[in-house]
Specification:
By secondary structure, the chain is mainly alpha-helical. 36% of the residues lie in helices and 6% in strands. It is built from ten helices and five strands, in the order ββαααβααββααααα. Strands 1-2 form a two-stranded antiparallel ribbon. Strands 4-5 form a two-stranded antiparallel sheet. Strand 4 and strand 5 form a beta hairpin. The longest helix has 24 residues. The chain is globular, with a radius of gyration of 19 Å.
Length: 312
């Protein structure tokens, strides 16, 4: 089935208020049907207008009021995972279901397929923001930015190719060409800051230090400050294993069930590699006590989206 024809309705219980998730649909060649594809981050970062729009769109997404249904907070609370993906454990868009632990499926054959529409929603919001922002550029550059917005797709971080996190995701500031000209802004790829800090009922103290952090962190020190250089050391030391496991999985596993998730059992005690297993390793190596390493909080870290786009 063509990707653009898949329409997901998460909120079947409240059809009149449902969020239709059909991903990014622009930029398709009308004569061939060819559609834009997602790019590896290191390539995408040199794309000019597309990268500028991606950064500005992500910034706008993160600044949306947290109670808004399609805010970064609501979507990243994996509240499709929770909020959609994880905490706070509240029903998203009034949908009844197993939201007490987030809607996201792990250790299940549904692990890859659940995240597909989840990423499509994220991409849809980013592209919609980009199209609105592109229309605000000066006349001299507007057409270039509007064309870039039409074909924009979210990038991925290929950790099997290079396990080191892209340098741009760990910069506090980032420079982009905004409608008002060359501008330096707080880097929305580095962290997400809660505004306001969630209540104890949303992020209970029983979850430990993670519930107290006002911004997302990677490999935090005792003061709750990110240590991306230490995370990168861990990633680099596991580079060959990540590459070998990925190659083995793609070339040697013909059956989808063991390929897809860590919960597969053959009933005979067999041990299997899986895409979820490799995915779990990245979460742990990047987070190491920070948001990426704790499932209910993982999607708040902006690198989650680069990681999961690669996993998909």
């Amino acid at each position: 089935m063509p990707y653009s024809s898949i329409l997901f309705i998460f909120c079947l219980a409240h059809t009149s208020h449902s969020i239709a998730i059909n991903g990014a649909t622009g930029g398709v060649d009308p004569s061939t049907g060819q559609r834009p594809f997602r790019q590896e981050f290191s390539t995408f970062a040199t794309s000019g207008p597309a990268f500028d729009l991606y950064i500005l769109s992500l910034q706008q997404f993160q600044q949306d009021d947290q109670p808004e249904l399609l805010s970064y907070f609501q979507v990243s609370g994996e509240s499709l995972s929770l909020c959609i993906h994880g905490r706070p454990y509240i029903p998203w868009d009034g949908v009844p279901g197993p939201y007490e632990a987030g809607y996201c499926t792990h250790s299940s054959i549904l692990f890859p397929s659940w995240h597909r529409p989840y990423l499509a929603l994220f991409e849809q919001i980013i592209v919609n923001n980009a199209q609105q922002i592109a229309a605000t550029y000066p006349n001299a550059s507007r057409s270039r930015y509007e064309a870039a917005a039409q074909s924009l797709r979210i990038p991925y971080w290929d950790w099997a190719l290079n396990a080191t996190m892209p340098s741009l995701v760990n910069q506090l500031k980032i420079s982009i060409e905004a409608p008002e000209g060359l501008t330096e802004i707080d880097n929305p790829l580095f962290t997400y800051t809660f505004h306001p800090q969630p209540s104890q009922s949303e992020f209970p103290s029983t979850d430990g230090r993670i519930s107290k952090y006002q911004s997302t962190v990677r490999y935090p020190d005792r003061n709750g400050q990110s240590q991306p250089e230490l995370a990168n050391r861990q990633l680099q030391s596991n580079q060959q294993a990540l590459r070998d496991l990925t190659y083995q999985l793609i070339t040697d596993q013909p059956n989808y069930a063991p390929f897809s998730n860590t919960g597969f059992s053959d009933g005979q005690g067999g041990q299997y590699n899986s895409i979820e297993n490799i995915h779990n390793a990245i979460h742990g190596l990047v987070g190491n006590g920070g948001h990426m390493s704790i499932v209910p909080y993982a999607a708040f870290d902006p690198i989650f989206w680069l990681h999961h786009t690669n996993t998909q």
